[in-house]
UniProtKB/TrEMBL annotation:
This is Cytochrome P450 3A30. It holds the Pfam family p450. It comes from Sporormia fimetaria CBS 119925. InterPro entries: Cyt_P450, Cyt_P450_E_grp-I, Cyt_P450_sf, Cytochrome_P450_Monoox. It comes from the Eukaryota. GO terms for molecular function: heme binding; iron ion binding; monooxygenase activity; oxidoreductase activity, acting on paired donors, with incorporation or reduction of molecular oxygen. The lineage of its organism: Eukaryota, Fungi, Dikarya, Ascomycota, Pezizomycotina. Heme binds at residue 413.
Length: 484
């Protein structure tokens, strides 16, 4: 497999196979002995059918990919009653209303990011966009989860370093065929997990002490809006104990449940945002017309000047929803660069097959893989898919089910509203002040595939690295200058 750079993500292979062999909207892929047989789904409506949680639970492969880093029983990988409990407890924190109320807090972290970029612009040094964006996203997740200001962006964080180490080496452990090599990377993961887990547990315990010690905790338990995510989970625990007439306790088992959810948010909540902002600035660096329109919208909807815009965000956070062109830029980046995908199964159900275009396809033992990237690059759903065109989103020319960077249905990414707002805010507070440029690009002489031509400009950087999730290659090295 030399068509793409080493360790390229699987979805781009699916897109290539479908285009080359004119494959239908679902087909089988057998990669034995690397893994189970896969039923790849590239038809948007059929993909929507498979994301029904009541019919098609999550495949064990997702747990194999995530649990070694975040722990067992996470919201992404769990099924049944446990998933329903977690969703009911956590979903209110990610409602549009609650997320929009968090805008000032996210903007505060984004202004700190602005200061980090300012220093890099002054020094002229090469930096990795994924690294500084991951620190921003880490600070944001901790702010909404615990209402603490860690400031990993400027002070660093041992916990953040541990998270990056685990997500950075797990794919090496997962893919190693030599048992000694696998043990080596497993040791690195466990060493860093021993740093991150106690960090999260202490934050949970601190919130528990604060809640149970509060004099007005009895009257405040009914309030849900604006609370940190951990508070929602802990207050459910207190309410449950009071309903049973027993003193509330924070036992080790329940602490581990919460720890897993927070680590899931840290891992998933940093990857998408960090990667997508990097790819956006990569694209904008070679598309000055798009960048100029983005900047014009920021001046028009808010006001010229970053400090004045920040002040407006504090007073009128709802205006972030008026950034239509900015949203189009983000969606285009998500269309080109999909971070992850869901994996479903019929295991534990009575379903044995699915009918598609009058033909029956067996499902037993299959990894069912709806593949967003292939849909995103299909001209049937997205006209002229090779073109980075933010205006396509105002034309409403594509079926809703075809765009699925966060997946769709009841088990779509619970944090997608926060992720979208965070990316809007970061662009709003940085795009007018800085010009980013990728460093060390080696453009291809001709496109590797017929479904895109970004490699003519960006070379290997056009193809994501398949790590804990799909990421920018080598962290996306860049330089930045002050925009004049």
């Amino acid at each position: 497999m030399t068509l793409f750079p080493d360790n390229s993500q699987f979805q781009i292979w699916v897109t290539t196979w479908q285009r080359k062999y004119n494959l239908p909207g679902l087909f089988y892929v057998d990669l034995w002995p690397l893994g189970p047989t896969q039923l790849v789904v590239t038809d948007p409506d059929l993909a929507q059918h498979f994301v029904s949680p009541n019919m098609y639970p999550k495949h064990w492969f997702e747990a194999r990919a995530l649990d070694p880093v975040v722990g067992e029983g996470g919201m992404i990988t769990s099924n049944g009653a446990h998933w329903k409990y977690l969703h009911k407890a956590i979903a209110p924190a990610f409602s549009v209303t609650n997320v929009r109320a968090l805008t000032p807090k996210v903007a505060e972290q984004a202004m700190r990011f602005h200061s980090v970029v300012e220093k890099l612009a002054k020094s002229g040094e090469v930096f990795k966009m994924e690294g500084i964006m991951t620190a921003l996203a880490f600070d944001v997740v901790l702010k909404i989860a615990f209402d603490i200001d860690l400031d990993a962006q400027t002070k660093g964080s041992e916990a953040l370093d541990a998270l990056k180490a685990m997500t950075g080496v797990f794919h090496k452990e997962r893919d190693a065929t030599n048992p000694f090599t696998r043990y080596k990377w497993r040791s690195v993961r466990l060493k860093n997990r021993a740093i991150l887990d106690p960090f999260v547990r202490k934050l949970i315990n601190d919130r528990w002490v604060a809640i149970t010690a509060a004099r007005d905790s009895t009257t405040e338990l009914g309030r849900r809006s604006g609370l940190p995510i951990v508070d929602l989970l802990l207050r459910d625990r207190i309410e449950e104990a009071r309903g049973e007439g027993v003193p509330p306790t924070l036992d080790a088992k329940f602490t581990e449940v919460i720890t897993t959810q927070i680590k899931t948010m840290l891992a998933a909540g940093t990857g998408t945002t960090a990667s997508t902002i990097g790819f956006i600035y990569m694209i904008l660096s070679e598309n000055p017309d798009i960048l100029e329109r983005l900047r014009d919208e920021h001046d028009r909807v808010f006001t010229p000047g970053t400090n004045a815009t920040y002040a407006m965000l504090q007073e009128t956070p709802h205006k972030i929803s008026e950034l239509d062109y900015t949203t189009g830029v983000i969606k285009e980046a998500l269309r080109f660069f999909v971070v992850a995908q869901t994996v479903r199964t019929t295991e534990g159900t009575s379903i044995t097959s699915v009918t598609y275009n009058g033909r029956e396809y067996p499902l037993k033992g299959q990894m069912i893989l709806p593949t967003p990237h292939t849909m995103h690059m299909d001209p049937k759903y997205f006209p002229n898919p090779k073109k980075f065109d933010p205006d396509r989103w105002s034309r409403n020319e594509s079926p809703a089910n075809a765009f699925r960077p966060f997946e769709r249905g009841q088990r779509a990414c619970i944090g997608q509203t926060l992720a979208m707002d965070e990316m809007r805010i970061v662009l709003l507070l940085t795009a007018r002040d800085f010009d980013f440029k990728c460093e060390g690009l080696k453009p291809y002489a001709k496109p590797a595939v017929d479904w895109q031509d970004l490699d003519l400009v960006f070379g290997d950087m056009a193809y994501q690295d398949n790590m804990f999730e799909a990421r920018p290659r080598n962290g996306m090295p860049m330089r930045v200058k002050r925009h004049m």
